[in-house]
């Protein structure tokens, strides 16, 4: 009776051990296969370098050129007028002066785009 009890306890342990060995074999084989695929995709020596050089000149540089042209053409049609200043009470609140300059302008202040609390500079 006692030996049957130990056999029934050990049987799940054997199954789990067999499952563990089986999963390790599968994992090793899948990792090896993945390494082989990645190393094959990397190419060999000069051929890989030629491929990337061709991709750089045929895809990347023309792509950058098209983006630059798009930005230039959109900037040509953009109006460069300042929008009308509306003194909203919840915007441009200065509870403390900035520690640089006259204390009223932010660190990256652009007088053409960023109004002061009382309006744009040079427009009175």
TrEMBL record:
InterPro entries: Cyt_c_oxidase_su6a, Cyt_c_oxidase_su6a_CS, Cyt_c_oxidase_su6a_sf
Pfam families: COX6A
GO biological process: mitochondrial electron transport, cytochrome c to oxygen
Top-level division of the source organism's lineage: Eukaryota
Membrane topology: Single-pass membrane protein
Main subcellular location of this protein, as a coarse class: mitochondrion
Pathways involved: Energy metabolism; oxidative phosphorylation
Key words of the record: Membrane, Mitochondrion, Mitochondrion inner membrane, Oxidoreductase, Transit peptide, Transmembrane, Transmembrane helix
MF GO annotations: enzyme regulator activity; oxidoreductase activity
Record localization: Mitochondrion inner membrane
SUPFAM superfamilies xrefs: Mitochondrial cytochrome c oxidase subunit VIa
GO cellular component, one term: mitochondrial inner membrane
Protein family per UniProt: Belongs to the cytochrome c oxidase subunit 6A family.
The name this protein goes by in its record: Cytochrome c oxidase subunit
Biological source species: Maylandia zebra (zebra mbuna)
């Amino acid at each position: 009776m006692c030996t049957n009890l130990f056999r029934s306890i050990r049987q799940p342990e054997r199954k789990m051990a067999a499952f563990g060995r089986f999963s390790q074999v599968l994992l090793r084989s899948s990792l090896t296969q993945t390494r082989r695929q990645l190393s094959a995709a990397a190419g060999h020596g000069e051929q890989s370098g030629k491929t990337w050089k061709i991709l750089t000149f045929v895809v990347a540089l023309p792509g950058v050129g098209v983006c630059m042209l798009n930005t230039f053409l959109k900037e040509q049609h953009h109006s460069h007028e300042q929008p009308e200043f509306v003194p909203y009470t919840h915007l441009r609140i200065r509870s403390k002066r900035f520690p640089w300059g006259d204390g009223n302008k932010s660190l990256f202040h652009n007088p053409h785009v960023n109004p002061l609390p009382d309006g744009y500079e040079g427009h009175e």
